[in-house]
Write a structure and sequence with these properties.
By secondary structure, the protein is α/β, with parallel strands linked by helices. It is 36% helix and 21% strand. The protein is built from 13 helices and 18 strands. The strands form 2 sheets. The chain has a 15-stranded mixed sheet, with helices on both faces. A 3-stranded antiparallel sheet has the order 6-7-8, with no helix packed on it. β7 and β8 (136-137) form a beta hairpin. α6 (180-192) packs across α7 and α9 (291-302) runs parallel beside α11 (331-351).
C-alpha cells in the first residue's frame, strides 16, 4: 500500500465532508471515518479525514480526541496533518480551536503553523486578519446569534490569541499575493519574532493556490476546508472525475435538519414553499421524557408520505426562539435533546426504507452518523461548495448521505440535492 499523503482531523462531521469534498475535487482519493478507527487503514487512498464530534466539547475532551486521531493517522504513515475547523471559526474564548492546535503542535514537535478559515467559494474571506461572511463582517452575519459558539469578534488574530498561549501573528494579503517565496519569507520573520500561529489572509481561490506551495512540508496545517484546494498539487496530484464516483442511488428520500443558521432557515422555508411535506420538532416538546413519543409521532407522519418524494423533519428555528428554549432548559441540555431526537428520527427513517438522506447541521450530523452506525464514508460529487454526496456501505446495499454545514448551500439545496444524485 502506498504511504498516506494527508491525514486530516475534523472537529465535526459536516466539516469533515466539506474538507474531503475539496480534496476529492483536487484529485485525491479520500475516505472519511466517523471517529477514530480501531483497525489499520486497508483502502488505497491518498487522504483520510477523521471526523470527530469535538467542536463544542470541553477543551480537554477535544484535545484527547484529536490526539487519538493524530496517533492513528501517524500509524498509517501520514506525511502531513491537517486540523480542520469551521469556515466561520466557530469557537469560544476557551477554545476549542486554539487548545487543539497547541496540543497537535506539541505532539508533532513543531513550533509554527498557520490558521485561516478562508473559503471564498462559500463567501468566507479573510482580509487584514478580519473574517468576512459574504459582504459583511462575521459578527454581522448572523453568527453572533449562534446558540453554542456566538462569534462577536471578526478579528481572527484577537480570537486566536485568546485561545492560545503561543504568540499569534498575521500574513497579510499583500504578502500572499506575491506568492510562495514571499509567504515563506514572512513565515521565517514571524518565527524569528516568536510567533507560533500565523493567521493568513485569503480573499480568492487564487490566494489559496498561492498559499498551497508554501505549506509543502509543514508538519501541521490548521484551516477551514478552503486551503485544501492548494495542497494535492504538492503531492503531484491533479483533478480527476474518477475520485468522486459513487454507487448508483436507490430507495426513499428524506431531510433531517437541526441547524438554526440563517442559511438553513432559508432552506427549510424554501422546501416548505415547494409544497413538500415538512414536520417541525419543538425542543420544548421533548422535555420530561417525551422524546420517544415525539419520534414515533414523526415516523408515523412520514410513513405514508415517503413514497411520493422527500419529506423534511426539522427543529430549525429563529434566534429568539432558540434563546427562549435555552433559557428554559440550558444551552447544553436543549442541544442534546434535539440532537438525540433527530438522530432517532434518522434511524427510524432508515428502517422505513430511506436510502437517500440529507442531514443539515454539524452537531445534528454527528449525532445522526453515530445513530446510524456509519463508520466510514466514500466521498462523491459536490452538490454545492463544501457539500458532497457520500456513500456509506452496509449489508442493505448502503445509504447515500450528505452532511451539510448549517451555513452552506443555496436556498433550494434540499430539493437540488436529490436531483443531483439522480
Amino acid at each position: 500500500m502506498s504511504k498516506l499523503k494527508l491525514g486530516c482531523i475534523a472537529d465535526d462531521s459536516t466539516g469533515a465532508t466539506d474538507l474531503a469534498n475539496n480534496l476529492v475535487r483536487s484529485g485525491m482519493r479520500v475516505v472519511q471515518t466517523i471517529g477514530v478507527p480501531t483497525a489499520p487503514l486497508v483502502a488505497e487512498v491518498d487522504a483520510v479525514v477523521v471526523a470527530l464530534k469535538s467542536r463544542t466539547n470541553p477543551a480537554a475532551e477535544a484535545i484527547a480526541q484529536s490526539l487519538e486521531a493524530l496517533k492513528w493517522l501517524q500509524a498509517q504513515g501520514a506525511q502531513q496533518i491537517y486540523f480542520k475547523y469551521c469556515s466561520t471559526f466557530d469557537s469560544t474564548p476557551e477554545g476549542n480551536i486554539g487548545p487543539v492546535t497547541e496540543a497537535l503542535m506539541d505532539a508533532l514537535g513543531t513550533d509554527f503553523t498557520i490558521a485561516t478559515p478562508a473559503f471564498p467559494d462559500n463567501g468566507r474571506t479573510v482580509f487584514k486578519g478580519y473574517l468576512f461572511a459574504g459582504n459583511v463582517l462575521l459578527n454581522e452575519s448572523g453568527m453572533q446569534n449562534h446558540p453554542l459558539t456566538p462569534m462577536t469578534d471578526p478579528n481572527l488574530v484577537r480570537v486566536m490569541q485568546a485561545q492560545t498561549k503561543r504568540k499569534v501573528g498575521l500574513i497579510d494579503h499583500k504578502t500572499v499575493g506575491q506568492g510562495e517565496a514571499a509567504i515563506r519569507e514572512r513565515m521565517a520573520e514571524l518565527r524569528a519574532e516568536g510567533v507560533g500561529v500565523a493567521v493568513v489572509d485569503a480573499t480568492s481561490n487564487a490566494d489559496l493556490h498561492l498559499l498551497g506551495p508554501a505549506l509543502k512540508g509543514m508538519p501541521l496545517v490548521t484551516a477551514g476546508s478552503g486551503v485544501a484546494i492548494g495542497l494535492p498539487a504538492n503531492f503531484g496530484l491533479k483533478p480527476s472525475l474518477q475520485a468522486s464516483q459513487l454507487p448508483a442511488a436507490s430507495g426513499l428520500q428524506a431531510v433531517v435538519s437541526g441547524s438554526c443558521s440563517v442559511a438553513t432557515n432559508a432552506q427549510v422555508a424554501h422546501f416548505k414553499a415547494t409544497g413538500r411535506p415538512a414536520m417541525a420538532i419543538a425542543p420544548a416538546s421533548l422535555m420530561h421524557g417525551q422524546s420517544d413519543a415525539v419520534v414515533q409521532q414523526v415516523l408515523a407522519w412520514a410513513t405514508p408520505l415517503l413514497k411520493d418524494g422527500p419529506v423534511l423533519v426539522y427543529s430549525t428555528a429563529e434566534p429568539d426562539a432558540v434563546k427562549a428554549v435555552q433559557a428554559q432548559l440550558g444551552v447544553a441540555e436543549a442541544g442534546a435533546l434535539v440532537e438525540h431526537a433527530l438522530a432517532a428520527v434518522a434511524r427510524g427513517l432508515l428502517g422505513l426504507g430511506v436510502r437517500q438522506l440529507v442531514v443539515a447541521g454539524g452537531e445534528t450530523s454527528g449525532a445522526c452518523v453515530q445513530a446510524l452506525g456509519i463508520a466510514q464514508l466514500q466521498i462523491g460529487p459536490q452538490i454545492d461548495p463544501g457539500v458532497p454526496w457520500c456513500h456509506a456501505p452496509s449489508a442493505t446495499g448502503g445509504i447515500h448521505i450528505t452532511l451539510k454545514s448549517g451555513n452552506f448551500g443555496t436556498e433550494d439545496f434540499f430539493s437540488k440535492a436529490f436531483g443531483a444524485l439522480a
